[in-house]
Specification:
36% helix, 233 residues, Rossmann fold, alpha/beta
């Protein structure tokens, strides 16, 4: 599948991997990357969403730091580089959210899109999916094992479209006190659906990763698919 170019709201442009479905008109999903860039895992996810009937685009959110990052989780050196990129990205977190909005807007007007667009993110992308629900016009958002969103729960009042979060109970990046804060702040919001996976660790849906858990991943993916279908058709 080809990469496409998207104009950033604050100037410049960035690439996104695009996967297209067979049908002529379909909803779109913005797939939000982990800390490893738009790597093969993210591209495979886009291809999977396309096979399910969605236009799927994964924008390069690290483009201001280093365009075209494609790391794996298979070596300590790549983990170190991924964390360094994440730490460099965090001061521009709001610009990253702006890039997600730019991608959503681009996809709404893209050939073959029926104008409905959702967002699905993993790890760092899970946090950005929560931010997308708060600050973009995504029709629906899904976040897998988000991190640090307990620091921005005051933004939840902005949520006006459905949001689903998959929380790994044994996630060291989202400890029990953070999970409790998330559930307390979001549990009563009619737009928010929370799922917790007992005994499951961070990145349980990353195929090939050390924490991959096939049963939990399948359940989360089934829940996400039903949620996206309800919102996007």
């Amino acid at each position: 599948m080809p990469d496409i170019t998207i104009d950033a709201a604050d100037g410049g442009s960035f690439s996104a991997y695009l996967a297209t479905p067979e049908q002529a008109s379909a909803p779109a999903i913005v797939v939000i990357q982990e800390i490893f860039g738009v790597n093969q895992v993210m591209r495979d996810l886009c291809d999977t969403f396309a096979a399910q009937g969605y236009l799927a685009a994964c924008p390069d959110l690290f483009w201001r730091i280093e365009p075209g990052v494609q790391l794996t989780d298979q070596s300590p050196e790549e983990w170190d580089r991924a964390f360094a990129l994440m730490n460099a990205f965090l001061p521009d977190f709001e610009k990253g959210v702006g890039d997600i909005q730019a991608t959503i807007s681009h996809m709404r007007g893209a050939e073959g899109c029926n104008s409905k667009v959702g967002a699905v993110g993993y790890c760092l992308g899970g946090s950005l999916a929560y931010a997308a629900a708060c600050f973009t016009d995504a029709d629906v958002s899904v976040g897998y094992y988000p991190v640090k969103i307990e620091d921005s729960l005051e933004n939840a009042s902005n949520i006006s479209h459905p949001l689903m979060l998959h929380i790994a109970e044994a996630d060291g990046f989202c400890p029990p006190d953070a999970q409790a804060q998330i559930k307390e702040a979001l549990g009563g919001n009619d737009q928010v659906t929370l799922h917790t996976y007992p005994g499951i660790d961070h990145a349980f849906a990353r195929i090939g990763g050390d924490n991959y858990h096939a049963e939990a991943a399948a359940l989360a993916n089934q829940r996400s698919q039903a949620f996206l279908t309800a919102a996007l058709g």
